[in-house]
Structures are given as C-alpha cells and as structure tokens.
Amino acid sequence: MNYYEKLAARTRAVGAPLCVGLDPAFEKHRVEDVVAFNRAIIEATAPYTACYKPNIAFYEQWGLPGLRALEETLAAIPPDIPVIGDVKRGDMGNTAKGYARAMFEHWNFDAITLHGYLGLESVEPYLAYEGRGLYLMCRTSNPGAVDLQYAEVQSEGGVRPLYEHFGLVQTSWSDRIGLVVGATAPTELRHIRELLPRTSFLVPGVGAQGGSAAECMTAGWAGPGSLAVSASRSILYASEGPDFAEAAGRAARKLRDEMVAAAGSPV
Fold first, then answer.
1. How far apart are CA 227 and CA 129, in angstroms?
2. Phi and psi at residue 202, in whole multiples of 5°?
3. Which residues are catalytic?
4. Residue pair 134/127 in contact by the 8 Å Cβ criterion
5. What is the DSSP track for the chain?
6. How far apart are CA 229 and CA 203, in angstroms?
7. Are the beta carbons of 11 and 267 closer than 8 angstroms?
8. From CA 222, how far away is CA 94, in angstroms rounded?
9. pLDDT tens per residue across all 267 residues of the chain
10. Pairwise CA distance, residues 139 & 137, whole Å
11. Could you tell me if 30 and 11 are in contact, meaning their C-beta atoms sit under 8 angstroms apart?
C-alpha cells in the first residue's frame, strides 16, 4: 500500500481528511516533557485523524534531545495512520540523496514536504523510494506568498502566476507528487483543483492562521486521498490547562465534523 492509498484508507476510517500537526512550541515545553505531551495528544486525537504531520524544526530546536523526542513520538503513532514529515528540503545531487535517506530510511516518514525550485533533479532521489509521497510547494499559506508566487510566467496554456506553473510542472514529474496549497487561499485552492483534478493536496493553515476546514473541503475535495487538511496550534493548544489532551480531542473532532458537514456525509 503506497502513501496515498494509506491516506485514503485512513480518511475513510475517520470520515474526513484531518491532518494534525505535532509541533510542540519551544516556549511552552521542556524537551523532557515533549514525548508525554505528544503521546497524550495522539491518544486524544487519533479517532478523528487521517494523518499526522510533525514539522522537524520543532524537534531540531532542542538539538539531539529534541530528535530523540521525535523518534519516540513517531513510535507512538498507530501504524495505520500515515505520517507526513514536514521538512521542506530543496537541494540536489548527493545532498538530496542524503536527505532522502534520512527521511525515508531513518525517520521512515510515509510522505514529506519538499521545495522543487531546483527542478526535477532535486526531487528524483526521493522518487527512488517507491510508495512514499511527496508534497511540493505550490501556493503557500503565509501572507508573504504574494511576494513571489504571483509573478506571471509563460506556462502551459499561456501566461500564468508562478504558483500555477509550479503546480503543473511539478506534478508532471510523477503521479506520486502532491502539492502544498494553503488553506488561507481557498480561491486559489479551488482553481488549482480545477487544473489538477487527481492531485493530492496538503493544505496547511487551518485554525491559528485563519484558514477554514469547511472551505478547504468545498474548494479542494476530490475523494479520499485527495486532501490532508492540517491544523496544529488550534488543536495542540486548544487548552493549556490540565485538560489539554481532552481539549485537543474536542478540537480535532470539531474540525473533523466541520469537514464531514461540508462534504455532506462522512467520506
């Protein structure tokens, strides 16, 4: 079973494509407490979660102890739930081969995020790992996306904004390449879905960044495996009291239910 099949199966099991970002905030935790925090979050949110997405920066910030916490966190995730390593690598040659080896042989992520700006040769080392998914940057969720991603370029079908060109070119390299399209840009998400009806999208930015899970479903849903709609802070820190895990579970269930309602029924 490849990553996208695993994501589709898990999406059907929980009824919606909720992705929970396991991103512990440096200012809120001691590194020695991170694993227990993450385990509690996983236990509370797993009934509603199609996939998890740890951003490796939130573990690297503590150095080696943080990486050990990531290793223990990954071990706590049930094996039927796919894991996206949010790593955003973007180099080529032997460097890319080294990154690919680390991401898929050591960390054993089911899928990862990448930058494709250097072209196909920067992505080929990751494609060598059969069954793994790749999400390449397209239209990101941050406000600064407008600084570069809307530059007009000559592309398939005429002049397009750069993010559309990236989407069309990058997905032509392999059917295992998906795209990162921010939840804060639902109009663009809808348009990219029209251009690429069978591509899987990782959609970050729900919750703290202002994106709407329901709008993501309306704009981008194309069946199980087509979306992973991600929220991090709004779930992990729904409460910072002793009931934090229960609050995280409620927040995850609420987002799952919003997506079910937008779809009209569990998917």
1. 22
2. -95, 125
3. 88
4. yes
5. --HHHHHHHHHHHHTS-EEEE----GGG--HHHHHHHHHHHHHHHGGG-SEEE-BTHHHHTT-HHHHHHHHHHHHHS-TTS-BEEEEEE---HHHHHHHHHIIIIIS--SEEEE--TT-GGGTHHHHTSTT-EEEEEEE-SSTTHHHHTT-EEEETTEEEEHHHHHHHHHHHS-TTEEEEE-TT-HHHHHHHHHH-TT--EEEEEESTT-B-HHHHHHHH--STTSEEEEE-HHHHTS--STTHHHHHHHHHHHHHHHHHHHHTS--
6. 5
7. yes
8. 36
9. 999 999 999 999 999 999 999 999 999 999 999 999 999 999 999 999 999 999 999 999 999 999 999 999 999 999 999 999 999 999 999 999 999 999 999 999 999 999 999 999 999 999 999 999 999 999 999 999 999 999 999 887 889 999 999 999 999 999 999 999 999 999 999 999 999 999 999 999 998 888 999 999 999 999 999 999 999 999 999 999 999 999 999 999 999 999 999 998 887
10. 6
11. no
Domain 3-263: which CATH class?
alpha beta
Q: Tokens 């992705």: give the residue.
A: 19
pTM: 0.96
